[in-house]
Amino acid sequence: MFPQMNRTALHFAVGRNHLSAVDFLLNHKARVDVADKVKHGLMVIHLAAWSGSLEIMLMLVKAGVDQRAKNQDGMNALHFAAQSNSVRIAEYLIQDLHLKDLNQPDEKGRKPFLLAAEKGHVEMIETLISLNLHTSEKDKEGNTALHLAAKHGHSPAVQVLLTQWQEINETNENGETPFLLTVEGGHEECSKVLLAAGSDINIPDKLNVNALQIATRNGHGSLVSFLLRENVHLHQKVEPKESPLHLAVINNQITVVNSLLSAQLDIDILNQQRQQTPLHVAAELGNVEMVETLLKAGCDLKIIDKQGKTALAVASRSNHSLVVDMIIKAERYYTWREDHHETIEDSSTSSTLSFKQDHNLETRHIRTCLWNLAYRQLKANEWQRLARLWNFTDDQIRAIEEQWSGNESFREHGHRALLIWLHGILMMQGNPVKHLYEELGRAGFPELAEKIRQFKSETDSSSKKCTVS
């Protein structure tokens, strides 16, 4: 006995398939009935079945090993043989030793056939079928052999099992079909096998979560596309807590979001608890890329959640200033487009449309000019005068002001408002310098307007500097 490990020398010899060592130990009266206390009460017959050595198994049987011995998990030699694809051992136990009574469930309620399916051992599955030891019984979690093989994506094993199966859409204790389990594991090939065999793509589990939601939540983009191609239902009879689109946003799966939007999933769908759109969720998370995707797709910016807040208000409350500015840009852009009766398809700016921060070299000079204007010229409350002249709404101004960092915050607020204005001018393909000159004059800043007049164009020369100082 190795006291620190509670294993005998025979355990090690059998586990490592050392025939000569096993023979030596058995000839010296090594005990074959000692359980390994480290590995759930493993006995040497279990190790022999697992390792697949028929020669060692014959030696142990000759030495009087308990052929029906179980470990702490209720597993006998046939369980271990099935789990490790030891076909010769399984055939020996059943055909030569006539131990069909080994075909019993373990502590999890799994017979050897279920263990072979879980591991995807096609040869063992076929052997147990030929020995008439196949079963459609369920384990304690309600899983059949088909559930277990599908869960782990064992497509060849699933194909063999399907030849024996009557009810392909049978559910386990969680209400999951084999198809749902294979989708959850991200196994696209196995999903195709089950679908071709007649699996219902739209059966949800007990929590009313369907395959599309599961694939979305787990970020299986390829599977999402596959399910959409197979016409999975986009709308359930009972709406889930979170739609597939919400789940994709929460889990930052932009590729999945684009797939769902391409399939015409309602971009403004509300979740159950908070009555929020996907944009509300993305705004609260401060996810700039996700917000950009949803804004460019044309989501409704006026929808309010259960607390009466728009996505802009949610972003503002969460202090996500980048997202606040993006949403204001989008509100102003789509308002302008509606006023000019343009659609996304009609707009000449649709290919270059972006609501993120502008880092374009072509606009560097005008952006420098606006920075100087905000941080060196405009006084407190003066940027709001410009903002109202430019038709910023009170909600938009409040959203900008909510990100307050001290008495000098008005400079940052003004700079952000100027950049939002610049975005709109560029989207309208206007001349920013010309517009700024005219509108500073209209707002009552003639001296600043005159300085802007000297600023010719942001594209004239990279060496020119803004004259506002």
TrEMBL record:
Domain named Death: residues: 382-456
Transmembrane segments: none
Gene3D superfamilies: Ankyrin repeat-containing domain, Death Domain, Fas
Keywords in alphabetical order: ANK repeat
Superkingdom of this protein's organism: Eukaryota
Signal peptide: none
A biological process term (GO) from this entry: signal transduction
ANK repeats: 5-37, 40-72, 73-95, 108-140, 141-173, 174-206, 240-272, 274-306
Name of the protein this chain belongs to: Ankyrin repeat and death domain containing 1B
Gene behind the chain: ANKDD1B
